[in-house]
């Protein structure tokens, strides 16, 4: 338990305190400070954590605007206190404006020297490589505080808040042939498209860049040269049915449309629901569908993790002063995939490719490793570019997929094909950048991963994905 002071500085005859630490069930009377007619204080023993509270002053609920404020799930503004622990009998509390009389502020000031910061953070050999274990220990209290704040926000925010004020949402009928869908996605710059089943008057899933990778690999395995008419004869629902049954180890006959699974979200669901659904089903995006009393459903939006993270970043940017974990360098946090020279062992190796590798090798690696993109490096391991699943859509340009062989096209040639249509998806940072900075980069549209590079050489040290961040913040 930590002795936690609460202070009201604005006068009154009677001042009471209530908060989430007692379930808002009790009003605790605050005591006037000796020698002051305006300051009231009360010290309460609390375990480390994040607590909302409010002051009841002369019969009216009040918040201290000079302290940290936040809005709860009911739209009510409350003050927040973050109880972190004690150091040398000094109470470490954010949000109350209180310090011990013996507090030495100079001892707790961060260094203003970039060189000193770097020297302090860089641990290991003279080359700047990381040690096998992170040098920075994460306190359970800091982790709990961030998770509580994040959880409260995700639960209180609804999916409809992700929908822009203006824009368009494109949807394809499942009767459309795959070749036509390929061109539509290329022309519109899309990597996922919701599907509509007119026969059953319902949403029928999503068409993704991964579908085109699988189709092209399948055609490539049967023919040396792609045939234009093969895609022109294949309807989307036919492809989806075969793909679904293949993953269930069933005979490859067409599946009835009503059995095609749909993962979606409603506009009034919480951001927690939509993020969990995307992560648990290992998909990149899900449609937001509105339907009332069995009427024809309406497609409102396509929700993805980057959109959820952007909403989170807008909320957290006002609280960086007390969410200290967000300010820690990512190189010392247990998230991401790193090359073994720079990091402790990770769940799986960091995969890279060279410009001379074949497009076929890249597509196979993307599918087998279940990743969205691969860093392209030179012989020295320095970052050159990135190849992503969605880059396959560029092969629709001038029907390139009809006259190329995947194992004869290099990554270098494939990147040249995409250069005039691909968006800037190559986001980088160093291992000294903060977690919040990486979250901001990942919240940009079309960004699924950030490549960690050494600042001077651009040598690839690691990769942090959207899933890595959400897994880290929720475990």
What does this structure look like?
Helix 4 crosses helix 9 and helix 8 packs across helix 11. The relative contact order is 0.10. The strands form six sheets. Strands 2, 3, 6, 7, 8, 9 and 10 form a seven-stranded antiparallel β-sheet that branches. This protein has a four-stranded mixed β-sheet with strand order 16-21-20-19. The chain has three domains: 100 residues, Immunoglobulins (Immunoglobulin-like), CATH 2.60.40; 149 residues, CBS-domain (Roll); 150 residues, CBS-domain, CATH 3.10.580.10. Helix content is 26%, strand content 23%. With 475 residues, it is an alpha+beta fold. About 14% of the residues have low confidence. The chain contains twelve helices and 21 strands.
Uncertain regions spanning at least 5 consecutive residues:
86-136, 245-260
Q: What's the number of domains? A: 3
**SSE class:** alpha+beta
Radius of gyration: 27 Å
Number of helices: 12
Distance between the termini: 24 Å
Beta fraction of the residues?
15-25%
CATH homolog superfamily of the largest domain: CBS-domain
């Amino acid at each position: 338990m930590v002795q936690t002071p609460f202070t009201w500085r604005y006068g009154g005859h009677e001042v009471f305190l209530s908060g989430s630490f007692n379930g808002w069930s009790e009003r605790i009377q605050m005591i006037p400070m000796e020698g002051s007619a305006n300051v009231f204080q009360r010290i309460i023993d609390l375990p480390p954590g994040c607590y909302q509270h409010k002051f009841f002053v002369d019969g009216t609920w009040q918040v201290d605007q000079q302290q940290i404020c936040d809005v709860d799930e009911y739209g009510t503004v409350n003050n927040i206190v973050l109880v972190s622990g004690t150091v040398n009998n000094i109470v470490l509390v954010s949000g109350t404006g209180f310090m011990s009389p013996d507090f030495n502020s100079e001892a707790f000031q961060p260094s203003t020297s970039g060189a000193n910061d770097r020297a302090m953070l860089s641990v290991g050999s003279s080359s700047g490589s990381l040690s096998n274990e992170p040098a920075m220990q994460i306190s359970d209290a800091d982790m709990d505080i961030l998770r509580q704040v994040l959880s409260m926000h995700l639960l209180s925010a609804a999916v409809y808040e992700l929908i822009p004020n203006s824009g368009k949402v494109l949807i394809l009928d499942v009767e459309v042939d795959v070749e036509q869908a390929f061109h539509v996605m290329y022309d519109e710059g899309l990597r996922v498209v919701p599907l509509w089943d007119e026969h059953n008057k319902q949403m029928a899933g999503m068409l993704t860049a991964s579908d085109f990778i699988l189709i092209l690999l399948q055609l490539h395995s049967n023919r040396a040269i792609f045939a234009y008419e093969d895609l022109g004869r294949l309807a989307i629902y036919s492809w989806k049915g075969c793909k679904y049954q293949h993953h269930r180890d069933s005979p490859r006959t067409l599946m009835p449309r009503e059995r095609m699974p749909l993962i979606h979200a409603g506009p009034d669901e919480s951001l927690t629901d939509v993020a969990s659904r995307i992560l648990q089903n290992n998909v990149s995006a899900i449609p937001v569908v509105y339907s009332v009393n069995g009427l024809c459903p309406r497609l409102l939006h396509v929700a993805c993790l980057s959109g959820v993270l952007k909403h989170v970043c807008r909320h957290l940017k006002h609280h960086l002063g007390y969410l200290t974990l967000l300010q820690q360098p990512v190189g010392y946090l247990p998230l991401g995939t790193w090359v073994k020279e720079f990091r402790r062992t990770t769940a799986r190796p960091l995969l890279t490719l060279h410009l001379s590798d074949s497009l076929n090798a890249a597509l196979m690696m993307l599918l087998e490793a279940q990743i969205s993109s691969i860093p392209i490096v030179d012989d020295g391991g320095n970052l050159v570019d990135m190849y992503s699943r969605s880059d396959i859509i560029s092969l629709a340009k001038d029907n390139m997929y009809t006259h190329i062989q995947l194992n004869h096209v290099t990554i270098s040639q494939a990147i040249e094909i995409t250069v005039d249509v691909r968006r800037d998806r190559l986001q980088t940072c160093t291992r000294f950048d903060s977690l919040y900075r990486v979250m901001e980069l990942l919240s940009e549209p079309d960004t699924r991963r950030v490549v960690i590079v050494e600042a001077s050489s651009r040598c690839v040290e690691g990769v942090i994905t959207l899933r890595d961040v959400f897994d880290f913040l929720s475990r």
